[in-house]
Amino acid sequence: MLSPLAKNIIKTLAYYDIFSYPLNADEVFHNLPVNHSSSKEVKNELEYLCAKNILFRIDDFYLLKNNQEFVQRRINGNRLCNKRLKSAFRMSKLISKFPFVRAVLLSGSISKGFMEKDSDVDYFIITKPGRLWITKLFLTIFKKIFLLNSRKVFCINYYIDYNHLEIEEKNVFTAIEIATLIPVFGKEYYDKFYEKNIWIKNYFPNFPKRNNQMIDKDNPGRLQKILEKLFDNRFGDWLDDFAMKLFSKTISKKFRYLDKNDFVLAFKTTKCESKYHPKFFQKKVLISFEEKLNQLQQSLKISLM
After folding, report:
1. Which domains does the chain have, with CATH numbers?
2. How confident is the model at residue 60 (pLDDT cuts 50, 70, 90)?
3. Which of 25, 45, 203, 255 could hold 175 in an S-S bridge, CB 3.0 to 4.6 Å?
């Protein structure tokens, strides 16, 4: 008979097993779906599960499969991420200089500390209300002209304005994505965003808030001030509406073959939010997680739900 803690440890490792990503003991503790005050007890339970051959330990990592390749893949991915973080920070500072940008956060795989050679650098942007689509328009033009439309170094898949910071979709996937965001610019807005999404603690009560002491302060440059003043009028209102309609029309045409529910999940196009996830990663992960739990329940003859 496994303890509730043991079952939650298995669930935690099951989620990351989808990505072939082993965790160390502290990471298991932080990702537990229940509040637990003792990391030492978690470590003891991990060792117990390894002794029972339910889990495996390789070096300092725990995983569901006794696979050294998973551990080496993680180590290599962590090293590559550390190298690419420097350029991602530089790009974040550049993004922060664009009109109406109020916060820049790293998201996706780089925010988890892991990257592969073909991984994109993903960004999460918080903008001024009513100017989200102008911001996206300027950044998209910059990407297409100066970065040759490269997703590898510049992939902004989520924009939200600072009057609408709470993420509507609340599940284990979005909770992890929010908890692991790395704030680079806009401390005030990151703090507000975190408070508006404190519901993530229902999924990961032990996960610590990201360190925000080193975030760049909001010191807009002269060009940024000039451009914001230039578009802070009726023409700016018109341009923001025009940009939203333009992007919406392009996306609808490009993905017209999609099921309506899938389209709503992958894309959001409102005045206060722009989401662009054409690979349906969230849906795929949630389905894979449910399947993984069902497999483990059958093999271990326990309930994990």
Report:
1. 4-66 (1.10.10), 84-284 (no CATH)
2. very high
3. 203
- Please answer whether residues 98 and 224 qualify as being in contact, where contact means their C-beta atoms are separated by less than 8 angstroms: yes
Averaged over 191-200, what is the pLDDT? 97
**Burial class for 126, CB neighbours closer than 10 Å (0-12, 13-18, 19+):** buried
At a CB cut-off of 8 Å and minimum separation 6, what does 262 contact? 280, 283
Which amino acid, residue 254? K
Environment class of 254 (CB within 10 Å of its CB; exposed 0-12, middle 13-18, buried 19+): exposed
- Report the side by side order of strands in the sheet with 182-185: 182-185, 101-107, 122-127, 155-161, 273-276, 267-270
Beta bridge partners of residue 243, listed in sequence order: none
* pLDDT tens-digit map of 239-251: 999 999 999 999 8
Pairing of strands 267-270, 182-185: unpaired
- Per DSSP, the residues of 93-144 read HHHHTSTTEEEEEEEGGGGGT---TT---EEEEEE-TT-HHHHHHHHHHHHH
Query: What's this model's pTM, rounded to 2 decimal places?
Result: 0.92
- Using DSSP, state whether 157 is helix, strand or coil: strand
pLDDT tens-digit readout, 95-149:
999 999 999 999 999 999 999 998 999 999 999 999 999 999 999 999 988 877 6
